[in-house]
Amino acid sequence: MSGGHNMNAPRTPRAPSNEGGTSPLGSRSGIFRHFAARSLKLNRTRSIVSIIGIALSCALITAIFTSVVTLYGGLLKAEIVTDGTWQVELVNVPEDELDTVHADTRVEESYDRISYGDALMPKSFEGYWGRYLSVQEWPTADAVGDLKPLPTIPEGRAPEAADEIVLDLDLKGMTVENGRQLYDALPSTVKDADAPRASWDGALEIGSTIELALGQRMFVDAESGTEIPCLYDESLYTTTTDKGDVISEYLADIEPARTYKVVGFYAPKNAQAMDVWGYSLPGYLGFVSSSDLPVRQTSVYLTTNLTSRAAIDKFIVDYTGLDHALFNGGNRGDLENMTVTGQTVAYSHDSLLRYQGMTDDRSIWGTLYTLAAILSTVVIVASISLIYSSFAIAVSERTRQFGLLSSLGASKRQLRRTVYAEALMLAGIGIPIGLAVGLAGTFVVFNVAGEGIGMLIDQEAFADTGLTSITVNPIVLAVCALLALVTVLVSAAIPAWRASRVSAVDAIRASRDVRLTRRERRGIRGMGRAARTGAHAHPIARTLDGLRLRMGGVPALLSHRNLTRASSKARVAVASLAVSVALIIISGGISHYLGFLTQVVDSGGGDIEVNLSRMLTDEETTADGVAAIDQAYRELGGAKTATGNGYMIMSSLFASFDAGMIDYDELSSQSDQYDMPDRGQTADGTVYAPTSALFVDEDSWREILEANGLDEARYDDPDSPVAVALNGTQSNDGRRYSVRDLFEGTGSARIFTNISTVEDTSLVEVGVEDGAPIVRYEGYGSGDEARYDEDGNPIFRNVTRPLEEVLLDSYDLPVGAIVKTFPDSIKSYASIWPTLVLPVSALPALAADTEDVKTDVDTGSLAAPFAFHSAQGSYGNAMYAYLSYDAEDSRAAETEMNTMVASDLSGSEWYTTHLTNNAENVRTSRLMAETVQLFITCFILITSAIAVANVFNTLTNSIILRRREFAMLKSIGMGNRAFWRMIALECLSYAWRGLALGLALGGIVTFFIYQAMMMSFAGLDFVVPAGWVFAAVGVVVLVLAVSTIYALRKSSVRSIVQTLREDAI
Fold first, then answer.
1. Residue 243 to residues 125, 599, 858, 996: CA-CA distances in angstroms?
2. Sequence-distant (≥ 6) Cβ neighbours of residue 933 within 8 angstroms
3. Torsion of CA 864, 867, 872, 878, to 10 degrees
4. What number is the average pLDDT over the span 127-143?
5. Cα-based angle 349, 354, 356 (whole degrees, multiple of 5)
6. Pairing state between β 854-855 and 869-870
7. Which of 120, 322, 602, 682 is deepest in the core (most CB within 10 A)?
8. φ, ψ for residue 956 (rounded to 5)?
């Protein structure tokens, strides 16, 4: 046998005798480990690429699961900040059992929440919510600990003496006559009709005295007739009849009235936080210090040392007799079936137990861990492709070495173990590196994006700190290492099996290295028959080969032949390139559309917006209300770093417009979305339509006049106001934002300032019917009249009256100009209706004829839009104002403004006051979007790196394995230039196919992202970001260039003769 010596083949010792049917090398297993280690050293590049692939795979798996564990830690912290550490609340615990509960060895911490009963609020508060004032013991920090978040006192102090009380901040400024009802007033049972109600003089303020008669809430079971005491936090019991809802509970066992001094008002920590002490009550909550009042109910908040949900349930059964808890007081179905009064029930803090791993509801756990499993599967599949390619090429390259080992008597099992030994050695280096890189990368990501991650979890809990620390769980790290090891072993399985299947003679001759497909074998047999019979090749194939020769010469023809023969390797390279390109395009698409979401959050108005409703007392005039709003605007503008942008008072009303003023087609174009009738125009062209009137502050009014070149003298008379019509307003139908131009000309608008009511109905609209203007009313029945049909559907009364019959007052308002340029104070204003703008000084003139009109719920703001006085005991129309501010530090300004609102704008005249921090909302939304983008980008970058490494590994090794082919081509006269052209054409084929498939796949996924966005936002354009496309092209070119240059330099080290001699054995 002649031939060259294989420089890669290790020296092997003399084979021992194969006695007993065992392998001659069986007693020298260390030889195979040495052989595996030496092979890895001799092929450093392939080994390094494999280690990088293993490390990347392990790092990404580690990052995914560590992120999930950290997010669960964040969710647990958020739940504790929001609602405390309590696990179980035992409600209505008998006094003689309290010591038993506290002494229970399963209980670690506990707090007794003592309820002294409820007092009936004044009659004006009687409704679905607000009927009672519950009185409980003030929770102190020493007593409560971390079990519940403590209420804060923005004004006043905590109660100290027995006759002192702290009330809900919503009660500040309330009077006995003007209570706040939720929805409508409700008829109630007559059992407590004579019960004393809470009373006080004037508006509730610090220092006010309030008289309360406390009792026990009771309800009557409809089936058994049993009287059952209500739990302290149960919602109001009502019974539905054909005439509407009726309160079906009453106050019993009422104590003599006591007088308390108001020393403070309590509220949650911030405006966005939920009142965890009073949110489930059927009314308001007040706190007193330790009192000699009789205790009505005691509830115990507690934590336990239990570690399973079954143990928690057993604990609950021991004290309640019920086999489960009522979640957070939300499901009280069992209460209706209780036949024993005074029974203890329990609420379990399921949200907390879920994050502690002690709940049967695994929906969130399942969601996050399923997502982690899916992402890990993607990583594992991509990694298997890379690592398998590395081992497959390594085995193919060393076929002769395995043949030599087989000829010396190595068993198939030993050959497989040799490949697995290499895999374990690579894993032993790559997995620890991957674990370290994964933890370090997760730490960096959470520190860079910790604030955004915290906002994603809970804006209240992480408003100041963010989620910047990671949770390292040894069990999770062990699972990640195991998954990475399984990935490596699976990747090495098929190459190990192939290494053990080759025969010694075939391996040494390398006859298994060239594997033709069935199609290729048929093609070769066809060419053989053609050669024997003198037939010619297919004319199309012959024509294509001729074109290749003419356009690219022999290198082009050889390139095509090589790609055809090595189709499997080409497919691996193309697929890896396509995956890389697609991931880059998808990342760009996500980034593009997440940016749009952030833009939508930005309203375009001020950094801080304050919406408030000002009600007038009987002594006040409209001018007084305007002055109060103006003063509030200036006081709030005094907050640190805040600067006023202006304000406006908004009114909704009905009006008619002269012919030619309104583009009626545009006005009615959105009828379907807004249920707007297409019958608001009379034969003479007069248009009847809902209208918005904006009364802006004087500075904003001057800005409008100057920006549009209008004469100030004409528009500055408050006694004879002239309006401007607003075009270019935003319209949002819930799907798209659009700009509307409703005005075509100027003229006169007739404002309907007072339309009479029809009994038991409310005004719905002013329209046109049979060519004449009419007013439509709608309402329920009253008294004994049924309000619901047999199926429980409401029965409406529809009433129509001619406009002139019910119109009591109107105002003819000149419209002098149409403007599209307006100040920041109204930039965020959106309306589909015609909008008129006037100075705020003009509002008293329009309200003059209705200054003495008293409104209520039935009258409504549409019937008398400028009548701001309410009927006795009722809430009617209010002055709705919008205040706009810019702020350098919006969070500090918000905090200071909230303090001002709590102390100065929370009286009975200020019906509602709501502050919105637009700048912070936009910042928060941007942070959350950027955080999501960061996680997605990190995942895509690492996955792309695995795919790129796969391309590098596949191309590099496939080119190195062709060195005999290259040597033969050079030996027959192919020059370097032609040789490089052949390689370049092959790479070009990889590039365009990978780009085409990747762009198509990335475009399809981006289109699905676009379709998902279109479900919530219309008017978007489908975009594949060009910058990301160029980045994908650059990655493909760079990877192919680096892989090819490295491989060619690696394979050109040896001489042509030496390389060719390796093929002769």
1. 21, 48, 18, 69
2. 590, 591, 594
3. 100
4. 90
5. 95
6. parallel
7. 120
8. -60, -50
265 forms beta bridges with 155, 167
Cα separation, 24 vs 95, in Å, equals 85
Q: What is the pLDDT of residue 25?
A: 47
Asked if 590 contacts 879 with a C-beta cutoff of 8 angstroms, the reply is: no
pLDDT in tens, 182-239: 445 667 767 888 899 999 998 889 999 999 999 999 987 767 778 888 888 888 888 7
Q: What is the C-alpha separation between 682 and 946, in angstroms, rounded?
A: 71
State the maximum Cα–Cα separation within the chain, in Å, rounded to a whole number: 122
Please state, for a pLDDT cut of 90, what percent of the chain lies above it: 24
Q: What is the pLDDT of residues 117-132, one digit of tens each?
A: 999 998 888 877 788 9
The residues facing 252 across adjacent strands are: 216
**26: alpha, beta or left? (left if phi > 0; alpha if psi -120 to 50):** alpha
pLDDT for residue 417 is more than 90 = no
pLDDT confidence of residue 72: 79
Angle at 738 between CA 732 and CA 744, to 5 degrees: 115
List pLDDT tens digits, range 268-291: 776 556 678 887 788 899 999 977
pLDDT of 948? 74
The arithmetic mean of pLDDT across residues 969-982, rounded, is: 69
Q: Is the pLDDT of residue 9 over 70?
A: no
b/e sequence 544-579, b meaning 16+ C-beta within 10 Å: eeeebeeebeebbbbbbebbeebeebbebbbbbbbb
d(CA 338, CA 317): 15
Q: What are the angstrom distances between the C-alpha of 686 and each of 660, 662, 753, 1065? A: 8, 9, 18, 104
Grade residue 11 by pLDDT with cuts at 50, 70 and 90: very low
DSSP string, 140-158: PHHHHTTSSPPPEEEEE--
Q: What is the DSSP letter of 24?
A: T
- pLDDT tens figures, 562-591: 656 555 566 666 777 787 788 778 777 777
> Using CA of residue 248, residue 252, residue 257, residue 262, what is the dihedral sign?
negative
Are 979 and 562 contacting, i.e. CB atoms less than 8 angstroms apart? no
CA 599 distance to own-chain centroid: 15
Question: Rounded to an integer, what distance in angstroms lies between the CA atom of residue 361 and that of residue 676?
Answer: 45
Angle at 416 between CA 414 and CA 418, to 5 degrees: 70
pLDDT at 1058: 55
The H or E element containing residue 643 is: strand 642-657
Contacts of 440 (CB under 8 A, 6+ apart): none
Phi-psi region of 130 (alpha: psi -120 to 50; beta: other; left: phi over 0): left
* Contacts of 981 by beta carbon, 8 Å cutoff, 6+ apart: 552, 553, 555, 556
User: What residue spans of 657-697 are helical by DSSP H?
Assistant: 664-667, 671-674
Instruction: Compute the average pLDDT of residues 711-720.
Output: 91
Q: How confident is the model at residue 12 (pLDDT cuts 50, 70, 90)?
A: very low
349 token code pair:
């803090």
State mean pLDDT over 366-378: 66
Roughly what angle, to the nearest 10 degrees, separates helices 539-565 and 976-1014?
90
Q: Which residues contact 111 (CB under 8 A, 6 or more apart)?
A: 86, 139, 143, 144, 145, 147, 148, 300, 301, 302
Burial of 532 (0-12, 13-18, 19+ CB in 10 A): exposed
DSSP 810: E
d(CA 290, CA 658): 69
Answer whether residue 935 shows pLDDT above 80.
no
Query: What ranges do the domains of the chain cover?
Result: 31-82+362-502, 85-348, 566-604+920-1065, 616-908
Q: For residue 864, give the DSSP letter.
A: S
CA atoms 281, 286, 291, 294: torsion sign:
negative
CA torsion sign for 129, 135, 140, 145 is: negative
Model pTM greater than 0.85? no
